[in-house]
Write a structure and sequence with these properties.
894 residues, 6-stranded mixed beta sheet, 26 helices, 39% helix, 34 strands, alpha/beta
Amino acid sequence: MDDLLREFLTETSESLDVADVELVKFEQDPNNAQILNNIFRLVHTIKGTCGFIGLPRLASLAHAAETLMDRFREGRPVTTDAVGLVLSTIDRIKLLLQHVEETEGSEPEGEDRDLISLLEAMAEAVDAPATPPPAPPPQPAPTLERPLLPGELPLDELDRIFRETKVDPITPPPAAPPAAKAAPPKPAPAMPKADVEAAHGAAQAGEAHGVAAQSIRVHVGVLEQLMTMVSELVLTRNQLMEIARRHDEPEYKVSLQRLSNVTGELQEAVMRTRMQPIGNAWQKLPRIVRDLAQELGKQIELEQVGADTELDRQVLDQIKDPLTHMVRNSADHGLEMPEQRRAAGKSERGLIRLSAYHEGGHVIVEISDDGRGLDVARIKQKALENGLATEAELAKMPDSQVFRFIFHAGLSTAQKVTNVSGRGVGMDVVRSNLESIGGTVDVRSRQGEGSTFVIKIPLTLAIVPALIVRAAGERFALPQSAVEELVRVQAGSDHEITWLNNSPVLGLRDRLLPIVSLGALLGLSPERDGRDEALWERALIVVMKVGHQTFGVVVEAVSHTEEIVVKPMASALRQLPMVSGSTILGDGRVIMILDPAGLAQHAAARGGAAEETSHHGAGRQSRASQKRSSLLLFRAGSRDLKAVPLGLVTRIEELEVARIERVNGYPVLQYRGALIPVLYANEEVQRVAAGTQPMLVFADGGRVMGLVVDEIVDIVEAELDLELSPSNMPEVLGAAVLSGQATEILDVAFYVQVAFGERFRHLVRSSERPRLLLVDESPFHRDLLAPMLNGNGYEVTACASGGEALARLGTEDGFDAIVSDVDLPDMDGFALAAAVRGDPRIREVPIIALATAQDRDALERGRAVGFTDCVAKFDRSGLIAALKEFTGRQGIAA
């Protein structure tokens, strides 16, 4: 049963119950106009809603009853028979409603002409002129049983004034021709007894089992008070649990645990009563967009995604007006006229997209359009005219900061004032309304492609599970919804901290994650010396994930987990970027709740050496990366350092030497479902008889090999300048100074050629390896991804542009998937995806997009134009998982 029908049944049942009571009162007091109006309004509402839902039989019954009630409103006499007939009609309606509920929207077959005829006859009967009743016997003059108050007149005096008042006579209508003497109207027959009993039975059954009996209306104030009481109960529960932890009284533990469980169930139930889908705030928007499209002469399509995302009812009421204003702005400012869209190569029909989802303990609402985007130059001009910034300040500002000027009062980029917008009021009100509930609004835009407004609404009145951590001697709460895992870095563990561009990164399985120190980030402790390893020993890292970005937060300790009551920040503190609220712990201390999204932004800034988020920054980083190389330092034989380019290393494994086997006398290893050759870096490398030894895994095309070394030392990034090239050592490319020490740079190609001579050629089955087409402008990124994909069992063909990729696809067959960067020189990844989907020969080939983790609008647009999936550019595990899922094949020796 849909929500609309359920709401109709509930409201109609309530209205019928009220009408029952009011009709009985009206029969006893027929001159009470207020009761009569109440009954008429109820019957009229029932008729209207039945017609709207599409229930004509019910609507006809209600209409006939409404006609009779209208005669009473006109002053016709009220009789017991008439009231009984209306009550019978209500019983019949209840009987029909029960059938509608059972069939989920269908009326029973048949008609109600018998009852409708009785109602119509009764209405005509009360319309007929009635025989004047005989004059009543004279009644004694009424007397007042109390003394007259000042200004009151005696009743006999009022009666005399009334009788002496002259009244203009009403001219009667022309007399009808004489006719036979009309018989007095017969009383309308009552509703058949069987129907009455059935209706009463249906009413009783409905009261016990109907939809109306499953819900009640509760005032919002009662829910507010209940929520407040539950919040206090949670705080009290937390205090008792804290006392139990300190005193360790076993006799109380069972009771406290039961109290904790009951409190948790109660708070969950209370919070559900306050939650409503955000689609309730979007109901009026399709009509608004339709009217705006006609008024502005545009073709506009409204798309709604995530309408079932639930949020607090109070918050829902607060965001209705901001959402309406921003949709109107998108229609007026954002979308171009049809002829302008045709000239720009776009569809004449513009798109406004509303989406809502939960992220990092917040509700995120996005309003995006595919229009012209924000005009940065014009915004700067308006900001300069309004005195909001100087020319020097504007010249230094990034576009994201310039966009925020549109939220200042009085600033509008509209060319003319219209009924919709242009007066410079509205966006500042939007921001004020959202900030009043602890929310924020941000904007992303690209010239000619559209704009996206992002509303972030924090959980201001919620109870959420949180991880209590300590940093710089203070405690903080991290929402558990954003916590992935806890990692302790220590000697001999699989997790280690390395350094890229003097920034620490965590090596977690097959990923490198940017990490930040919470104390330093909040300004409570000084920045650590990145190269002082003692400061990072046994570091405790909270791995968090916000959207597509994963990062680590270094803390001193983790206290415990606790369900906390989120209190909104004061208005003066609301702009703090990394704090979303406060809470009271079980010991009575007030602590801050950290905002995972704010931490993610700072982590992204720290990790910017690996990947810039903006397109301009990405170009600079790509050029810088081509000058600098990441190198893996290790020792093999002597204490002298040796290095290989990190991009050529597919994996670093701890080789169990007992697993080494022999084929034709040469060492091989069963590695991920295939045999691979194993070489030692040189004759001096130790050959251990038992235990483990470091092994570097390299891949070239369909060939995978292992290189055994003695010790992994570090990962460094430096400008590689080879100075010496010894001719008697073919495995050495040359020497370079790395970290102040002379280092041999080994030639990986030499080892691959030695490993795959005639003796091992039969180990590789290239024809069985899935073929990938890798498209990326940056040679650095191609060199980084190709070996990794080769090492996971895929045969990779690399291209530098979309045009080259299309040429390959046109001349070569057999590609199992395409892995493409979003930003390409001649044609971007979106255009490449559209071209592939437009070619019947290759339209079914999966396309995996590589994009920056923060570029959400690019991800959404990619899925729309034909990308099968989108992953972050440096998310190796995500890329491999996507290839396995969408190609349906796993790489050989992967």
